């Protein structure tokens, strides 16, 4: 009987160790991504874009410090929220990311899929300036730092499928929209970059 107990204890310990190893793999427990316009993170998760690294398993986890544009992630790391294992999102890929077609001045419904809603301060949407360089990583100097759409929630919790109606700015050609979801009761925000093309 003592030998059986020792064997059982060893099996339990081995099982616990296996569980620890398997749960160290990235898990989809996170928070939210934009589905309209489709974000780089979502394109990676869909497999539309390959060689994306870890973001393909967790497009909802692009979380970094809040306070953009005076704070937040560093320039050149805005699309990854400064997370090194999501750095593929910062790579402009020579301006070849898939785009969503939009029109200047159109009414547009921006959509987030929230896998774990949080109390929210606001959602803000920023866009690149006319003449920005789509072959370079995104920086503050490439963006209009006044958001073209702000949706204030003042601490309320949004639904898991959140929609925000706004007006697309006047632009031509390829641009990038940075969506920032600022959490009310933590020090963080979620960042999503979406490539768009104005017709």
UniProtKB/TrEMBL annotation:
GO molecular function, one term: monooxygenase activity
InterPro entries membership: Cellulose/chitin-bd_N, GlcNAc_Chitin_IntDeg, Ig_E-set
Transmembrane intervals: none
Keywords: Monooxygenase, Oxidoreductase, Signal
Keyword Signal on entry: yes
Signal peptide: 1-28
Pfam families according to UniProt: LPMO_10
Domain Chitin-binding type-4: residue ranges: 31-196
Name the record gives this protein: Lytic polysaccharide monooxygenase
High-level lineage: Bacteria, Bacillati, Actinomycetota, Actinomycetes, Propionibacteriales
């Amino acid at each position: 009987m003592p030998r059986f107990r020792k064997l059982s204890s060893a099996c339990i310990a081995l099982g616990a160790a296996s569980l620890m190893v398997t749960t160290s793999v990235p898990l989809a427990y996170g928070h939210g991504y934009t589905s309209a316009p489709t974000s780089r993170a979502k394109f990676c998760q869909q497999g539309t874009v390959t060689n994306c690294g870890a973001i393909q398993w967790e497009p909802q986890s692009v979380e970094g410090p809040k306070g953009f544009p005076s704070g937040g992630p560093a320039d050149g790391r805005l699309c990854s929220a400064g997370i090194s294992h999501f750095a593929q999102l910062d790579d402009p890929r020579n301006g070849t990311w898939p785009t969503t077609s939009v029109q200047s001045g159109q009414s547009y419904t921006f959509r987030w899929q929230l896998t774990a809603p949080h109390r929210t301060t606001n959602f803000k949407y920023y866009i690149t300036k006319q003449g920005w360089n789509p072959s370079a990583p995104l920086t503050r100097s490439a963006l209009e730092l006044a958001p073209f759409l702000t949706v204030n929630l003042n601490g309320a919790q949004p639904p898991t499928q959140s929609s925000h109606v706004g007006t697309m700015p006047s632009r031509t050609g390829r641009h990038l929209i940075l969506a920032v979801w600022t959490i009310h009761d933590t020090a963080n925000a979620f960042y999503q970059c979406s490539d768009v093309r104005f017709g």
